[in-house]
Amino acid sequence: MTSGPSTAASLPYRVLVVEDDDSIRTLLESVLGLTGYTVASVGSGRAALLEAQRFAPDLIMLDVMLPDLDGFEVTRTLRAAGNGTPVLFLTARANDTVTGLRAGGDDYVVKPFGIEEVLLRVAAILRRTADGPHQASNSGAEGEEKDVLLFADLRLDRSRHEVHRAGEHIPLSPTEFDLLAYLMTNAGRVLRRIQIVEHVWHYDFAGDTRIIETYVKYLRRKIDRFDPPLIHTVRGVGYTLRLPRDQSAPDPRRPR
After folding, report:
1. What pTM was computed for the model?
2. Residue positions of the PTM 4-aspartylphosphate (predicted)?
3. Angle in degrees, CA 134, 137, 140, rounded to 5
4. Euclidean distance between CA atoms 175 and 215, whole angstroms
5. pLDDT at 87
6. For residues 85 and 78, is the Cβ–Cβ distance under 8 A?
């Protein structure tokens, strides 16, 4: 059996399993517990909303098809209430994946799934949301300086987990934040989709790239509502952060 993240023993991450199938719920609860996570489980959407508040999990494993509220509605309700806990969807239908990401999910596993894959996805989400690059790794002025990324009028502060463009604060989810940090760290370079998955999602990935396309779309709505647009698609290759070729960097001190 694959072990959990190396920090699981010293930092017992809390995972909430929401699954109405008793056998699957029991299996996930058992395997996650043996791997080193602290686990709670429920079998309905309304119970999930209550348990998410009581248990305060670091990650929610959420079945899409539930007997009352479906997983998408549970996630939308959590997000509307300001709860940004990462959500890993469990779905029997591949078509649910984009809907789940749009609802505010962070990743998905399609049933029937292997336990190895589930543990891999759980560890990957926790690495980027609990131990990801947005956390400060240094202290003092030198560390703070390294934690700040600047491009044009875009500013990302890893230690504070804050993003500003043209002086305006832009709230981002943990996954959006990490994707933007990776693009900014490699500004001007074209990043292939497989590179983005490996560095932002932290696992080997093949096939469906809609998870990347969906999150790039999220970022564009928030970052590129300012002028000029910074996130560009290189058709057939990937994405890059750069200024339009016919424009120079705007002066961030200049009022708009």
Report:
1. 0.59
2. 63
3. 115
4. 8
5. 92
6. yes
C-alpha torsion sign, points 157, 180, 57, 74 = positive
pLDDT in tens, 136-148: 333 333 344 468 9
- Helix 174-185 vs helix 210-223: angle between axes, to the nearest 10 degrees? 80
Nearest to 57 by CA among 162, 2, 129: 129
Annotate 67-94 with b (16+ C-beta within 10 A) or e (fewer): eebbbbebbebbbeeebebbbbbbbeee
Residues in the chain, how many?
Answer: 256
pLDDT score at 17: 97
**Type and span of the H or E element at 41:** strand 38-42
Residue 53 pLDDT > 90: yes
Contact 51, 42 (CB under 8 A): yes
- Encode the chain in three state secondary structure: CCCCCCCCCCCCCEEEEECCCHHHHHHHHHHHHHHCCEEEEECCHHHHHHHHHHHCCCEEEEECCCCCCCHHHHHHHHHHCCCCCCEEEEECCCCHHHHHHHHCCCEEEECCCCHHHHHHHHHHHHHHHHCCCCCCCCCHHHHHHHCEEEECCEEEECCCCEEEECCEECCCCHHHHHHHHHHHHCCCCCEEHHHHHHHHHCCCCCCCCHHHHHHHHHHHHHHCCCCCCCEEEECCCEEEECCCCCCCCCCCCCCC
